[in-house]
Amino acid sequence: MKKPLWLVVWLLVIELLVILLLVPGDWTDRAIKQESKLVEANLGSHTRYWIEDKAESWYQSTMIDSGFYEGVYYTLIPTEEQRLNSRGMEKMGLWWFQWAEGRIEALGNIVYQFYTRMALLLAWAPYMAILFLPAMYDGMMTWRIKRTNFDYASPVIHRYGVRFIGYLLLGLGIAFFAPIALNPIIIPIVMMACCVLVGIAMGNLQKRV
């Protein structure tokens, strides 16, 4: 699992670098608006407003109120007063400042989009718990039954069940940063698959006397 984990980490880093360096800021903004329409179409306007309110609250507290956004902005881009005080060099590096401003906007959009998807995951969490708890119970009961008879508990099924859960969650994490509009149904599908795999993995734990 170590190699796939490092591979996913590198893919995530590359994805973020590509978004920050190459993807226009308004691209992610359009994806956010399109995804918001998908949320409303599938889950209703009330859920859409709740997700947007939650994401804006997280964004305000972590990016704006913390001073992070302002600090990054004025680290890369001088103020108007600083520019005017640089006599003879007012327009020097203007292309860089424009590019940096676009990258800062892209960073803000990435963070906000990630928060909207985390809020969507939080909205689905109670329903996923309804599936997760029975899956765990079924897996535990299957494991206990196998302890009392000669049913085979497959370590291969257990190992690959755990691995697939990890792959699904890591893939979902990468998708959370993708600058495209994701259908909100993707999250419950992934989580339902994880619930089924949890039950299968638990049901094939090695027997212990």
Describe what is shown at a glance:
The protein contains 8 helices and no strands.
How are the SSEs ordered, and which strands pair?
Layout: H1 2-21, H2 25-43, H3 45-64, H4 68-76, H5 80-85, H6 94-148, H7 155-176, H8 186-203
Mean pLDDT: 81
The low-confidence runs, each spanning 5 or more residues with pLDDT under 50, are none
Using the CA coordinates, give the radius of gyration. Answer: 23 Å
- Measure the end-to-end span: 28 Å
Main beta sheet strand tally, sense and closure: none
The computed structural class is mainly alpha
Q: Give the SSE order as H and E letters.
A: HHHHHHHH
Question: What is the number of beta strands?
Answer: 0
The best one-word shape is elongated
Helix content: over 70%
Please tell me the total number of domains: 1
SS field, number of helical segments: 8
Strand content: under 5%
Pfam family, one: DtrJ-like
Protein name: DUF4400 domain-containing protein
InterPro entries: DtrJ-like
Keywords: Membrane, Transmembrane, Transmembrane helix
Structure description:
By secondary structure, the chain is an all-alpha fold. It has one domain (15-203). It is 81% helix and 0% strand. The longest helix is centred in the middle third of the chain and has 55 residues, at 94-148. InterPro entries: DtrJ-like. Pfam families: DtrJ-like (PF14348).
Using brief descriptors, characterize the structure shown.
8 helices; transmembrane; 209 residues; mainly alpha
